[in-house]
Amino acid sequence: MMAEPAPEHDSGIDLRRRPLGEIEPARSRHMWTRSAVGVAESGDLVVTGEWDGTVTARDSDSLETRWTVDHPDHAVGITSLETDETIVVAGRGDTGAIVAYDTETGEQRWRYDTADDVGEAVKDTVFYLPYVVALETGTDADGNERLYAAARRYERDGETRQWHSTVYAFDTDGEVCWTYETDASPIALDLDADGERLAVGYNRCMGDHDTGLVVLEAESGELAWTWDPGTDGDRRVGDVSFDGEAIAVSSHGDKRGYLLGPGGAERWHVDLAVETEIEGETLYAYPNHAYANDGRVAFVTGNTYAAESRETESRHPNEHRVAAFDADGELLWDDAVRGFVHGLATDGDRLVAPCAQNFRVRDPDTHAVRWFDLESGPNGCERIDGIATAAAVADDTVAAIEEPVAYHDEGETRGAYALRIGSLE
Predict the structure, then answer these.
(1) pLDDT tens digit string along 217-243?
(2) What are the Cα distances from residue 181, in Å, to 91, 159, 164, 167, 404?
(3) Phi, psi of 344 (to 5 degrees)
(4) Distance of CA 30 to CAs 139, 283, 370, Å?
(5) Closest Cα partner for 167 from 191, 192, 142?
(6) What is the bridge-based pairing of β-strands 321-325 and 331-336?
(7) How far apart are CA 97 and CA 73, in angstroms?
(8) Domains of the chain, first to last
(9) Spatial CA neighbour of 381 closest among 366, 367, 371
(10) What pLDDT, on the 0 to 100 scale, is given for residue 5?
């Protein structure tokens, strides 16, 4: 069991707010990814992606709009090709579009519809839509900048559930260099620092593809090696992160964190939110995020679940926590994030956690943007009225998306749909 969290204090950095229009309030349980935000490496440009498809680039200091475009789908992921001065937006929708926009003007440079590969939705509901779940950029061994993406689509026919997915490598002109297709559900990508290997984490494996981690040759897309937690069921991996030749993996199969060496050799593993008996119930929580850098690894866990029932009034002692370990797997520090973290933003040794609702507690004090130093631990917290559902950080600039929330047993809506931005200097 991890230590009790230290008392929190607002940081006082004053996350400025810019309204983003209207969106349906979230409820007690966290919703799917509906928003995205990105910050250029220089920190001078922030880009937001909204559920209605609006993508807007703003000056980070003045928040003046540089350009606005309509993305073909719900805009749910943002990255940038720095040397090509391009903003890339991932979509969830009919086409599962990946679109590259000029950083200065917003002009569309190229577009790729992943539905051409993963197929079209067979049911008119959000969970069936083609979905670009991850984007990753980097420079290959020859010095060429590359974009990597993972797209998936889900369908169900009676008791038969099926995933269709494709991992892509693009050059800066949008040409496909290679693809890697499976019948499993990818959830995370990470490229090693040398641009030679791409790690792909698969969350659900219920078909012929039966391994949670795939490492590909970045130049060719050829398979280098695989690893799996070796657990029963279709839950496998939650996140992956390179550090040199090592890869940190958060396991949804056994709720542990792993550090692997080349070829998948296990260096160590730690219990994060493994099955635990509490008041006659078997409880667990999924380790959803992993981040490794300079010999240290952090993992973030999510909501409590009960093994034998859909509902429980109890909480796993390690739910909604961040824990950091050294190169030998020894605990450096741990702290509470208090609410569900949709996605972890990182920059060097800095981690930023956009914290949404804790649906079992329903305490608005959990709504916050929290940041941590990978070596020393908690660095600051800025509470917000709504829930924080996306974040980005670069060059001391932090940006987050606030969404409104209306708990099912209260009569009010907290917060609003807005961009929040500030400096961590």
Answers:
(1) 999 999 999 999 999 999 999 999 999
(2) 19, 23, 8, 6, 37
(3) -95, 125
(4) 35, 19, 18
(5) 191
(6) antiparallel
(7) 7
(8) 85-228 (2.40.128.630)
(9) 371
(10) 54
Compute the residue count for the chain.
425
For the chain, give the secondary structure using H, E and C.
Answer: CCCCCCCCCCCCCCCEEEECCCCCCECCCCCCCCCEEEECCCCCEEEEECCCCEEEEEECCCCCEEEEEECCCEEEEEEEECCCCEEEEEEECCCCEEEEEECCCCCEEEEEECHHHHCCCCCCCHHHCCEEEEEEEEECCCCCEEEEEEEEEEEEECCEEEEEEEEEEECCCCCEEEEEEECCEEEEEEECCCCCEEEEEEEECCCCCCCCEEEEECCCCCEEEEECCCCCCCECEEEEEEECCEEEEEECCCCEEEEECHHHCEEEEEECCCCEEECCEEEEEEEEEEEEECCEEEEEEEEEEECCCCCCCCCCCCCCEEEEECCCCCEEEEEECCCCECCCEEECCEEEEEECCCCCCCCHHHCEEEEEECCCEEEEEEECCCEEEEEEEECCEEEEEEECECCCCCCCCECCCEEEEEECC
Report how far residue 119's alpha carbon sits from residue 195's, in angstroms, rounded to the nearest whole number: 30
Q: Given the structure tokens 């909501």, which residue do they identify?
A: 303
Cβ count near 224 (within 10 Å): 17
What pLDDT, on the 0 to 100 scale, is given for residue 236?
A: 97
Q: Are 131 and 117 in contact (CB under 8 A)?
A: no
162 CB-contact burial (10 Å; exposed 0-12 / middle 13-18 / buried 19+): middle
* Residue 387: CA count within 13 A, CB half-sphere: 33
Q: Give CA–CA dist 183/163, Å, rounded.
A: 5
Residue 27 to residue 272: CA distance in whole angstroms: 27
Which pair of structure tokens corresponds to residue 198?
Answer: 């791409």
* Mean pLDDT, 10 residues at a time, the chain of 425 residues: 54 83 92 94 92 96 96 97 91 98 96 98 95 95 92 93 97 97 98 96 96 97 97 96 98 98 98 96 97 98 92 93 98 96 96 93 93 96 96 94 94 95 89
Strand partners, 369: 354, 382
Q: How far is residue 396's CA from residue 359's CA, in Å, rounded to a whole number?
A: 31
What is the distance between the alpha carbons of residues 253 and 235, in angstroms, rounded to a whole number? 5
Write out the two tokens for 171. Answer: 């050059």
C-alpha 89/C-alpha 346 separation (Å) is: 19
Write the CB contacts of 64 (distance below 8 Å, at least 6 apart in sequence): 58
- Rounded to two decimals, what is the model's pTM? 0.96
Distance CA 217, CA 191 (A): 10
